[in-house]
């Protein structure tokens, strides 16, 4: 009724990430024991740089159908759909 534009709470390609959200992601990377990167080519910055902020002793798990720039650094790499890998992980708990 106000004539304003309704926008979903997502970041569209080309838009900057909200600073507070990105800062929280940076903190989470620095604190994580395990980092799971799922369904991304790791080619869109700045989010693509987040895994590099993880601790040197943290584990890295990649789930992506195609190779990424971090495959050689990963402790585990899955080349299957994210939904299948995560379902199998949850079913195995």
Note down, in words, how this protein is organized.
By secondary structure, the chain is an alpha/beta fold. It contains two helices and three strands, in the order αβββα. The chain has helices at 19-31, 82-91; strands at residues 34-38, 59-63, 76-78. The protein has a three-stranded parallel beta sheet, with no helix packed on it. The longest helix is centred in the first third of the chain and has 13 residues, at 19-31. The radius of gyration is 16 Å and the shape is globular.
Low-confidence stretches: none
* Mean of pLDDT: 92
Strand segment tally: 3
Q: Largest sheet, if any?
A: 3 strands, parallel
Rg is 16 Å
Helix/strand-derived category reads alpha/beta
H/E element string? HEEEH
User: Could you estimate the helical fraction of the residues in percent?
Assistant: 10-25%
Assess the beta-strand content as a share of residues: 5-15%
Shape: globular
Count of helical stretches: 2
Distance between the termini: 49 Å
Widest sheet: strand order?
1-2-3
